[in-house]
Amino acid sequence: MAVFLYKESAIFLLFCHMKNKIWKFLLFLILLTGWSDVYSQTYWLDQSSPTQKELTKSLFFDSEYGWVIGDSGIVIRTTNSGVNWEIQQTGIFSSELKDITFISRNTGWIIAADSTYKTFILHTTNSGINWNKTYYPDTTIILSTIFFKDQLTGFVSGFSGEIYRTTNSGLNWKTTYIDTTSCLYLFPKHDILFINSTTGFVCGGVLDLQGVFIKTTDAGSNWFSMCISAEPMNEIVDLGGGRVAVMGGDYDLGSIFAVSSNYGSNWIYEPTGCFGNATSFAFRTPSEVWAALSFSGTLAVNLDSMKPGSGWQCINTPGNIPINSIKFLSPTVGFAFGEQGKIYKYNQNVIGVQNNQLNPGEFWLRQNYPNPFNPITNIKFQIPASVETSRWDVLVSIYDALGREAAVLVNQQMQPGTYEVSWDAFNYPSGVYYYRLEVVNEGDAAATFTETRKMVLLK
Question: 2 FRET partner, CA 20 to 30 A, in 131, 323, 334, 387?
Fold first, then answer.
């Protein structure tokens, strides 16, 4: 079967050469036109908001008390499970607040940077009625994430990739040790989470380069870094029983997730198939998880506990408003926050998301695993049964970042079924590669299927 680069491939080649993210974004929108799922069901309802400023991060300490932060120093609070929201005055008017952490209904911290990129921390001891502003001692460090375990012990991190700890309520901060044996670089960090007094996690990374996960088992004195994906990760959620999940993405190939069943020692990484960068995700039920995909105005939904290969649905937000943060207090009470100060409440009259978009009789191409890899990775795909055709022409090809064909793994007729092939990249340089599945029924052009995914070879 000959190799044909269709119109999508020509755009793909141009796409790979472009360094400007805006142009890549526009090109992806062109390709996305035929891929987006449009749902008529109303899952989220517009709720009254006290602000029109962009809301970026949310935190609920319990089922009643919650805070949301955002642009221009905005902080809003609820004390009645989101029925009402009120603005809290911070004294900040020109900075986007980056992250928030609370250890009780009264005591919390917010981190941000001013117009000169000096990091400052806001601290409250009366539930946010008053905030005390202090600058981080080293004014050359840009920090963007914060977590306090208790009144004395807290952690901050950000652009430098270092993790700093205080044991005296922020009076002094010290650099902690990060073992980078498995992931060599100090990439920026985006989220910090401790699940008990000794075990904590951090995630982050760099666009188009690497997503990282960092773990401590000694209360944050020492950390171990792992490279787990091809794009940065933005938020961590502890699923219990040793399962940990992270989500992120980029501006071209969309949102991604990775899950571990052993507290981060090993990972399986996949794209969701939904356009956007996952900045937040939350479970409505043990099996149903929603992800906010920020700038795309889309939400991604998984109905099988984020199990690898289980598939995601892509749902437009009301008015296609970008959503940055999402939280559920119960299966019937949930909130999403985004641009224009929008607050959306989960429509409790909707009972779940019907899984009518996932058909085991469809074509599919899974994310390769492991990914990143060195030097062997596995690629799994499915050819569905068909009444008209019992054999298909199948081509599985590998392309480098410039769109040049690097290898052909499959080029033959195949019967319907699920297949897995391996690629040994021992003789290839490190970098980003793309693998493409093309399945053709010569007697029915409408049955032709193509899909391309990205993978990373790290040596």
Answer: 387
Specify the amino acid at residue 398.
I
pLDDT the model gives residue 411: 92
Tokens 């029925």 -> residue? 83
Q: How many CB atoms lie within 10 A of CB 355?
A: 14
- State pLDDT tens for residues 363-392: 888 888 887 888 998 898 888 876 455 678
Sole residue written with tokens 């950390």: 223
Give the domain-ending residue among 293, 324, 346. 346
Angle, nearest 10°, between helix axes 21-32 and 7-17? Answer: 160
Residue where the block lists tokens 């799922």: 37
Beta-sheet strand order (sheet of 417-424): 364-365, 376-383, 417-424
Q: Furthest-apart CA pair in the chain: how many Å? A: 73
179-216: pLDDT as tens digits: 999 887 889 999 999 999 999 999 999 988 899 999 99
Whole-angstrom distance, CA of residue 382 vs CA of residue 279: 30
Please indicate, yes or no, whether residues 277 and 412 belong to a single structural domain of this protein.
no
Alpha carbons 230 and 226: distance in angstroms, whole number: 12
Flag whether 15 is in a domain. no
Residues 132 and 71 in one domain: yes
Residue 312 is part of a domain; what is its CATH number?
2.130.10.10
How many whole angstroms separate alpha carbon 284 and alpha carbon 352?
Answer: 9
Count up the domains in the chain and report the number. 2
Place of tokens 């290969």: 309
pLDDT on residue 450: 84
CB atoms < 10 A from the CB of 84, how many?
Answer: 13
Q: What is the DSSP string of 140-156?
A: T--EEEEEESSSS-EEE
Choose among 253, 172, 294, 310: nearest CA to 433. Answer: 253
CATH code of the domain in which 451 resides: 2.60.40.3880
What global pTM score does this model have?
A: 0.71
Sign of CA dihedral 442, 446, 447, 450: positive
- Residue 255: helix, strand or coil by DSSP? strand
- Laid out side by side, the sheet with 323-328 consists of 44-47, 343-346, 334-338, 323-328
